[in-house]
Design brief:
Elements (H helix, E strand, L loop, with lengths): L2 E3 L4 E3 L2 E8 L3 H11 L6 E2 L2 E5 L3 H6 L3 E2 L2 H11 L16
Length: about 90
Amino acid sequence: MTVYIDPPTWPGHGRLWSHLVSDVSYAELHLFADGLGVPRRAFERDHYDIPRHRYADAVRAGAVEVSSREVVRLLHAAGLRRRKGSAAAQPRSA
């Protein structure tokens, strides 16, 4: 299982955030996030939002550090990218 995380550079709600993604499936991503204790509400379309203070936890658990551009490239290459507002962005099971 390989999941990827970008640096915590995305501001929101007074914090900085990272994006945790899979290049295989949402099921793989959910399994990894569950293992970290990340709530499902942190899942947004095609990634989990991970606060800066949990970044090191994700890396220790095996997430591979990549750039934000690489996160987007991985999602596109895997066919897992869901754009905001598109019909494909609607939640679906695993």
